[in-house]
């Protein structure tokens, strides 16, 4: 651990985002996921000789929206290039991408790490087309363990945005939080579903280590196959540790591309970067340059909704919530909307936030529910339950049980409480007689309470709750006991 503390990780991320346009980047084929293989193709996306690409205007607008949300400067003049390389999932043997004149440059995204905020520079946001998808035979689906591979060109030509950061990230934890923040921001823009499971959000990481205080960054490696937030953090943690061990043993870190194996939690070398071929970029001759007018940029800027960082700031000022609560609630669009809708029905934002962040989120995680809008509990029913607790009709402990049934069935809290006979006893005359019984049956604890031992009152309250099968209002029971004992 001491050796690792001598070194500072230096991390940059390259993130690919598939856009949710109706058609592909340079042709009219419909986008699809999960459809029959090779059913959404045409001469353009298959690279047939003589076919000509045409730019998808909506994809360009989506790309500008992402770049603006990342505080980028939009280049007035931008062009497409051909990135030349051969791979079976590349029907044209080149990819239409952007090289030296990307759409957006010089941006940044701030990530809240709790005790500090890290500003991550955005080097560039550029447009390109996705490749096809290789499907490897065999039980594991891995290329190294398969006898054959087939290719599905449905994905070929899908509009793709690449977001490249500066090497500003300083830990695997920061890298994970950056990806979470970037995903949430893009979801707010409604230009992609950002599903890492389906491949519409993919990330590669460049990582090196340097001795703290050193002026020169160490040799970097690139890690592929980081297809979840957890794998991103674990892959970087392993690679940082590996590079530190190499340096401590007086070895040399080699610039190479590595693959993260989530089964073993390790990275493995794929190829040396020194041996990588030149992509021979040159301007795409079949596409004209794109001129982005200031008027167009401003029109798109007006369509950008309130983003997570802005929403978190408003939640703090408008609802008086702690910063940690604001960041949690504002980071997910569905959750933020659910919270605000709940606040229209119940005037206690902090109580709503506590339930959403606590029991509600725990049940969602347990049941594999990704967004709060998919749950059966409506904002109105959540608020009805909270009001019932405030009125003293059920205890907070009972409320947890009621909420679990609401979550499972979608029923309103009132009918659940009535059917299960859970309503608290808050009638002072009824509770008074039960307290009298408990006092007469427990002279020892009563004497202790009279002698100043406050713990004894918890014992007596417990006895009252036992006699009433948990239905007694605990706060009222405490008041009655104190009155009777004096």
Give the number of DSSP strands: 16
**Arithmetic mean of pLDDT:** 90
Give the spatial strand order of the biggest sheet.
Answer: 2-6-7-10-1-11-12-13-14
C-alpha geometry? elongated
Distance between the termini: 60 Å
State the low-pLDDT regions, or none.
Answer: none
Give the tally of structural domains: 3
Proportion in helices: 25-40%
How many DSSP H or I helices? Answer: 16
Describe this structure in words.
This protein has three domains: 299 residues, no CATH class; 116 residues, no CATH class; 58 residues, Arc Repressor Mutant, subunit A. It has 16 helices and 16 strands. The strands form four sheets. Strands 2-6-7-10-1-11-12-13-14 form a nine-stranded mixed beta sheet. Strands 5-4-15 form a three-stranded antiparallel beta sheet, with no helix packed on it. It has a two-stranded antiparallel ribbon with strand order 3-16. The radius of gyration is 30 Å and the shape is elongated.
């Amino acid at each position: 651990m001491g050796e690792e503390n001598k070194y500072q990780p230096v991390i940059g991320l390259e993130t690919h985002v598939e856009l949710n346009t109706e058609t592909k980047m340079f042709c009219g084929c419909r986008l699809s996921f999960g459809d029959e293989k090779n059913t959404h193709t045409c001469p353009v996306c298959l690279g047939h000789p003589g076919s000509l690409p045409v730019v998808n205007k909506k994809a360009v607008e989506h790309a500008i929206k992402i770049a603006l949300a990342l505080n980028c400067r939009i280049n007035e003049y931008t062009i497409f290039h051909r990135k030349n390389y051969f791979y079976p999932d590349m029907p044209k043997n080149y990819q239409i991408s952007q090289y030296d004149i990307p759409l957006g440059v010089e941006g940044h995204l701030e990530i809240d790490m709790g005790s500090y905020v890290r500003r991550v520079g955005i080097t560039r946001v550029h447009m390109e087309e996705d490749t096809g998808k290789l499907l490897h035979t065999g039980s594991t689906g891995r290329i190294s363990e398969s006898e054959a591979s087939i290719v599905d060109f449905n994905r070929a030509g899908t509009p793709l945005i690449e977001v490249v950061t500066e090497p500003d990230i300083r830990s695997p934890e920061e890298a994970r939080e950056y990806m979470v923040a970037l995903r949430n921001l893009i979801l707010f823009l409604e230009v992609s579903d950002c599903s890492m499971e389906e491949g519409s959000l993919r990330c590669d990481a460049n990582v090196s280590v340097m001795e703290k205080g050193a002026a020169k960054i160490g040799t970097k490696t690139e890690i592929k196959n980081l297809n979840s937030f957890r794998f991103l953090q674990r892959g970087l943690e392993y690679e940082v540790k590996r590079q530190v061990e190499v340096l401590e043993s007086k070895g040399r870190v080699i610039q190479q591309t590595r693959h993260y194996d989530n089964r073993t939690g390790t990275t493995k070398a794929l190829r040396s970067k020194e041996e990588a071929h030149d992509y021979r970029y040159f301007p795409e001759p079949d596409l004209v340059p794109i001129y982005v007018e200031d008027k167009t940029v401003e029109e798109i800027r007006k369509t950008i909704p309130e983003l997570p960082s802005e929403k978190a700031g408003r939640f703090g000022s408008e609802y008086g919530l702690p910063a940690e609560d604001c960041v949690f609630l504002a980071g997910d669009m569905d959750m933020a909307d659910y919270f605000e809708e709940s606040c229209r029905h119940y005037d206690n934002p902090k109580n709503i936030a506590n339930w959403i962040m606590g029991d509600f989120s725990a049940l969602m995680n347990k049941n594999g529910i990704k967004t709060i809008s998919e749950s059966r509990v409506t904002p109105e029913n959540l608020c009805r339950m909270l009001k019932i607790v405030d009125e003293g009709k059920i205890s907070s402990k009972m409320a947890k049980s009621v909420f679990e049934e609401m979550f499972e069935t979608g029923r309103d809290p009132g009918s659940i409480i009535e059917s299960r006979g859970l309503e608290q006893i808050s009638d002072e005359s009824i509770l008074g007689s039960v307290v009298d019984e408990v006092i007469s049956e427990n002279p020892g604890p009563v004497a202790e309470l009279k002698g100043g031992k406050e713990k004894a009152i918890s014992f007596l309250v417990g006895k009252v709750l036992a006699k009433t099968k948990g239905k007694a209002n605990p706060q009222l029971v405490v008041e009655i006991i104190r009155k009777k004992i004096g």
